[in-house]
Structures are given as structure tokens and as C-alpha cells.
Amino acid sequence: MRQEWIKKRSGVVTQMHFARKGVITEEMAYVAEVEKLDPELIRSEIA
């Protein structure tokens, strides 16, 4: 499962990098779903 996620990535970029650019990643969306929170809240807390 993890290898499929990694294949989609281009280089090493952190979640913070995406969050600061305003991008909600699959990982952020997953956490938001599990925690029953708004994905934007997760993104803003990471940034």
C-alpha cells in the first residue's frame, strides 16, 4: 500500500511544504477523515 503512494511522488517533499503552498495532500485528507475534522484545519495546523 505505501509503495503505491510513494510511486506517485516526485522527489522528497514534506507535508509542511505542501501545506504552506495551500495544498491538501492525500495524507492530510486521510487524517481529517479519521479524526472527523475539516481537511483545511489539518492543512493550516501543519503549515
TrEMBL record:
GO molecular function: iron-sulfur cluster binding
GO terms, biological process: thiamine biosynthetic process
Signal peptide segment: none
GO cellular component terms, semicolon-separated: cytosol
PANTHER family: PHOSPHOMETHYLPYRIMIDINE SYNTHASE, CHLOROPLASTIC (PTHR30557:SF1), THIAMINE BIOSYNTHESIS PROTEIN THIC (PTHR30557)
Protein name: Thiamine biosynthesis protein ThiC
Organism: mine drainage metagenome
